[in-house]
Amino acid sequence: MRTLFLFAVCLATQFAASIAQAGDVAELEILGFTRDGGVFAFEEYGIQDGSGFPYANRYYIDTSNDSFLKGTPVRVRLDDEKATLDAARLQARQKGEAIVSQAELSANRGITAGSNPVTELSADPHRIVVNPRPIFSPVDQPLEFRLDEIGMNDTESCASQGEINGFRLLRIEARDGGTTKLLHEDKAIPKSRGCPNGYRIGAVQTFSMDSLSAYAVLIAVRQYGFEGPDFRWIAVTGRL
Fold this sequence. Notes:
- By secondary structure, the protein is of the alpha+beta class.
- The chain has three helices and 14 strands.
- It has a five-stranded mixed sheet, with no helix packed on it.
- A hairpin with a 3-residue loop joins strand 12 and strand 13 (212-224).
- The longest helix is centred in the first third of the chain and has 19 residues, at 2-20.
- The protein is globular and about 50 Å long.
């Protein structure tokens, strides 16, 4: 009986240790586009490791120039361990209504043409190729994106955080014989991104009116966290 008890304690200790090293992986919620495809919005939310505070952030991006709309991102964190995640998300949603209505985004969510969550181990985290719309046989050229990490260890504020990286995102133009188009390349790491260690492509969302008109590439950003690696989300958008 004592042996069984000690075995159970050992298992419980190992389980607690695994939870303690879980880190904070933000959930991704794709909100959608405006009716003309001019704005793309998404939400990330979760419980902050270390503090236990619930947070919810909403991002509204102009797809014509890949820039945030005025007054965004919307960031909510409730500095109370008893506060609920639902309460944080509700506050973020209410603030977001002043920018683009939830109803318009929900009516124009678009298509998740590709998805590669951070738990996926078999897919290439730095390359994705999708048929942008669920039409078979396809009427669109494939969309291919490739992500390269760029070493930026000279970032002074991140000196104690190990290897620090920015990123470069390319689109491969199939119709032009595989030529590449640069969509984004970090020259410096914005403060809002913290001290990123790595990146992976998490999803591709497309939007169509009469034809394919806009896209968003969702990228998971890995950082050092209090209890393990943290993941947050950013997006690179464009028109077609």
